[in-house]
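#dry-run=false #mode=assembly
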Amino acid sequence: MPKSKKVLESTHWLTGILSSLEMGIVIVDKDFTVEVWNQFMENHSQIDTTDIVGNCLFGLFPEIQENWFKRKCNPVFALATPVFLIWEQRDYLFKFDTSRPVTSNADYMYQNITIMPLLNDQGKAEKLCILIYDATDQAINKLRVEGLNAQLQTISRVDGLTGLYNRRYWQERFEHEFKLSIRNKSCVTLIMLDIDHFKAVNDTYGHQTGDEVIRNIADIIRQATRGTDIAGRYGGEEFVILLPDTSCENAITVAERIRKAVMGTLIKYEHHELKYTCSLGVADLHGAYTKSQEWVEAADQALYAAKEGGRNKVVIANTDSLNDE
Amino acid sequence: MSLPIVICDDSSFARKAIARALPDGWDVDISFAENGKQAIAKIEKGLAHVLFLDLNMPVMDGYETMKIIRKFDLQTVVIVVSGDVQEEARTRMMALGALEFIEKPINNAKLVSILNDFGLYEGDSKSLKRQQGNKTGSELSDKIDLFREVCNVAMGQAGKNLAKLLDIFVELPVPSVSIVHSNELSMAIAEIDRNDSVSAVSKGFVGKGLRGEAIILFNDTHVASLNALLGYDEQDELSELETLMDVSNIIVGACLAGVANQLQLNVTHTTPIILGMHCNLEELVSKNVSSWEELLMVEIAYSVSQANVNFELLLLLPKDCLDVTYERIALIGEQSA
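#status=ok
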């Protein structure tokens, strides 16, 4: 076969391959007038090559923001450097339907875009080649993983029975809040509370009823606190509430509200009816605490004093033994 | 009597490259300096009637050296040979009294034409004899030095692009090149504070044995000023990503093109991916680095002091890319000789 025929044949093949690639290929000049529009573009846009060549890109595709796109193309013309755009920046350049309308679980085709300079014999970029890659599957998978991670994060932070924070995450927030408040010298108070005679509830009415009591006190805590308060389930029937920007007096009001609400509740579960009470210890952040654990212990001792003092009580931590600043 | 000249550059590869480019017929007595301070000492001893001077060097850079030469009216003719090819770098040095400014990489033709222009040399341009004595060594340290110089030239071209596009002056550091184990990567990155919140995108590249990733890393506290510099006014997650991508496109594109040109390779790039937004370095690295091997790491800290902007270009390559680079440069040297 003569050489020229071979070259002709391979050019013919290449043209065929370019048109059937699963990738959009568009060539435009400096005024964004279309010069090349491959099969992929014809099929997805439903605009034939013969109808688009010679026309400006922007008039035909309102979804392409002219200023934004020109700005992205500027380095390609000015510096002859390729520019990459990813679907995280804009979901798409051309609004096309997804390639798999039934199972792709997307409303449109997500796209990654590569814009390459086409150089003339002086090495200047006079035209651009825009490549459009279908990134739908990649995008949908990433968005799904991000959604799942967010769900997992919630699950890992929340106690299943009560919907309050679990002990591990509460502790993390508590440590953070402790450091922050020490630095800002802000007013913050801790309440620790415990259901009175909870073991007897379990023994008498069964664990299911016990769980109902725990759910009930969690609801009461939720109602008595603000969105900025950090409430958690600390142990079996023990709870903690951190109240930022709250003085000891205001925290006592909150604690009393919880105590009274609990006292006034009648739990009805299956065939049982029962009433219960709780004890609470309140400790505001004291300048003498060097570790967060000392603060928790102060609240815990106040809670213990409430129990010792006959239960169904709010007791304030004794800070006399601590040296004030 | 031979003409005493000094070649001043922190890179041994660059010093030898200049020496190799000198025409055989030029009767000179060459001595070398690794920074401006050493060069000044040689000028004072009368060893530098002509001084070939690099710009970005540790201890004393080219600007400082030129200022001293001017202040004390030291007797030497300065020809700048630099990888920092920004228009303003040239203007500054010419204003300080440099005779000419040669862009790296230097070659015999460029050099001889300048020597001719200024009447310093008029003979044959051939430089075969000098090729011999100034071969690049093949020790690991020589290969690292060579690679640093290749990156130095490439990052200069990238800096010029950014400067041109934004009409600013970009301060270029000496690129740091080291071999690190991938599990100590976050410790090895020197310019980013452990506690800073950072964002990063990565792009892969491959070309005949040269392969790796180019990562643009920035400190989130600089994003606002970078946004302003690029002309995005609103500051939200999306405009931050746009900024990160714009910088990555301009810098990485030009830098890789610079490396590829010097090695006479065509490099294929991949679409960039986001490594992370607003996380600390440790988290970013541990989440993304999965290969456990020795890496060649190039760290280039770009800064624009007039706009309070810093960002970092990291090139990570498998260690054997040192050999690939060394062999390519040797091959190109043989072909041009």
